[in-house]
Design brief:
The protein contains eleven helices and four strands, in the order H-H-H-H-H-H-H-H-E-H-E-H-E-E-H. It has helices at residues 2-16, 21-38, 44-71, 78-96, 107-116, 122-130, 154-164, 171-189, 212-220, 250-263, 292-299; strands at 203-208, 231-236, 271-273, 280-282. The strands form two sheets. The chain has a two-stranded parallel sheet with strand order 1-2. Strands 3-4 form a two-stranded antiparallel sheet. The relative contact order is 0.08.
């Protein structure tokens, strides 16, 4: 299993970040030599079709291996990010020798592209949702994305990798991108501004403590982008009496923490505990629970 996971991981990574042309030509020559020895050379169309299927479904299989490893570890953690680390080390060495300056995508360019959905057609959106890997749209064809200013299409390549196999990118890099996306989204949506300053109105949510998860779901799941605005939370105690208090952020934090904690409780059956750890994962049997899949999605599962 480890060998398969490692091979798939390298395949998916190098689909987004192809190796040097010389190395690829050597691999093609080796394949041709092997085919000649076998005496059954593949037709170009057959080889191309097979490679296309492999490229399309390899990320799906890789995701399955990664999720399995997340529940019961059988691979070293560095296995997933090793190709990225090796590439960065090689590029850093090359840049010191002034051989490949400026080929890496800037964080700002990647964030802008992620927020704008750069380079994704409808088919590519479907492939992203299903975990399949497709080649990124050429940067020159993306209007206003800023990606065309990045030599080597590194922005598109990183986007491709983040959408198909995010575990191949180190967590620190993903965290930095996520934080910058949040900051830019706040500015674009004016979520941090009060209504008097031109920001959106607060979203009012009333939650019964006895039915906390259900009420939170009813009040927040259908809110759409409005959930990004400030929440104005009102709690109702077990006796049906509204609790006194003004929400300046503390009640909102309490609601979010209590909702996640309630959703992870064993009696709901939405999550199952990983053996030998304090981690939980979405319970495959949750689809049999009324609104189970919807609650899982609501909780981020």
């Amino acid at each position: 299993s480890r060998a398969i996971a490692s091979t798939l991981n390298s395949l998916v990574f190098h689909t987004a970040f192809p190796e040097q042309q010389q190395r690829r030509q050597q691999q093609q020559q080796q394949q041709q030599h092997q085919q000649q020895e076998l005496g059954t050379p593949l037709l170009p169309a057959t080889a191309s079709h097979g490679q296309g299927l492999l490229t399309q479904y390899a990320p799906v299989v890789l995701r399955g291996y990664y999720e399995r490893d997340s529940r019961q570890q059988f691979c070293q953690p560095k296995l997933w990010t090793e190709p990225y680390s090796n590439m960065m080390a090689s590029l850093a060495a090359a840049q010191q020798q002034q051989q490949s300056g400026g080929v890496l995508a800037t964080t700002a360019a990647v964030v802008q592209a992620l927020l704008a959905g750069v380079g994704l057609t409808e088919d590519e959106e479907e492939n992203r949702d299903s975990g399949r890997l497709t080649s990124p749209t050429p940067a020159g064809g993306v209007a206003g994305s800023g990606a065309s200013s990045i030599p080597g299409l590194r922005t598109g390549a990183l986007l491709l990798l983040l959408r198909s196999a995010p575990q191949c990118v180190p967590f620190a890099v993903r965290l930095e991108l996520f934080r910058q996306m949040l900051e830019q989204d706040k500015v674009r949506g004016r979520w941090q501004l009060s209504p008097a300053q031109g920001g959106p109105r607060p979203l009012k949510v009333t939650v019964r403590r006895a039915e906390l998860l259900e009420d939170a779901y009813q009040g927040l799941a259908a809110a759409g982008c409005s959930i990004k605005a400030r929440l104005q939370v009102h709690f109702v105690n077990a006796q049906g009496v509204a609790e006194a208090g003004i929400d300046h952020g503390g009640l909102m934090k309490e609601l979010l923490e209590a909702t996640v904690a309630a959703g992870c409780q064993p009696e709901y059956g939405l999550f199952a505990a990983a053996e030998g750890s304090n981690l939980v994962y979405p319970n495959p049997a949750a689809e049999a629970i009324p609104q189970g899949l919807a609650l899982l999605e609501f909780l981020g599962g």
